[in-house]
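Researcher: I'm preparing a figure for a lab meeting and need a structural model of a single chain. I don't have an experimental structure, so a prediction will have to do for now. The sequence is pasted below. Please return the structure as tokens so I can convert it later.
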Amino acid sequence: MTFKKVHFQSNGLRIAGNLYYPRGTVTLKKPLPAIVLGHPAAGVKEQAAGLYAGRMAEKGFITLAFDAAYQGESEGLPRNLEDPAQRVEDAKCAVSFLTTLKEVDSTRIGLLGICAFGGYGLTTAATDHRIKAIGVVSITDIARQFIRGGDGKQDPAVIQGMLDAAAADRTKEAKGSEPGVFPIFPENEEQAKAMGLHVFEGWEYYCTHRAQDPRSAKFFTWNSIDRIAAFDAFRIADMISPRPLLVIAGTEAATLWMGKEAFKMAREPKEMVLIKGATHVALYDKEEYVSQAIDKFDAFFKSNLG
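Model: Understood. Here is the structure written out token by token.
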């Protein structure tokens, strides 16, 4: 398995990606199926998306992991703007890029979404019929995440306060200020642990040697919030049918309720696989859980992409 750095355009922005090839691709006699992968909201292509892209390439697929616009190595200002509409466009442009490659069979393209990109992936697949199959792991809808909390128990006053702050910041922007930002992780381990396992495991993944990357987002812009609040990743999930959907989630994930909600809103053919003992973030990098997810995705995409 090898990869090379690539770039493609999305709404005039240069998007950075890593394109992974199975061994033996140089002697390929016919085009291969391909899979687009996007990172969680705070991530970059070198983290969970890259891990899954590499592992799926080992299974025989050409895979593309990319950084969202405004994040990672991709272009876009202000930095770390989280714009759901742009995220969906990025994914569609990634599909378009794959269709230009002679080694890719453009009639056999799938999408594999992790966390927030799982939610973005549902909207992308529902509206882009070039995607023939979609699999998601630890899926979240970023709007539900911010409005109801990762565990679904957040006080409704929280999002209202954030929308107040976003509105105030837009007014400052209109008067010439740079877009304001807010942190998306606790400051330290003590604060993270005090906020519960769901928060702590995210902090540990992104902010310690476990998987930290200097380009991954540690803050979002305030003008992300009203964009996020207006989005609903699951709203048209039923439109993916008759193309197949595979939802993988951990039995111990605080976000499991979102996976179940997405699955309920989708139509057949669909399958949900629960991985015993896995938390949300454990499915990003813990081998005992990742290997199970990869095996399921391998069988799913080989069955549906040929």
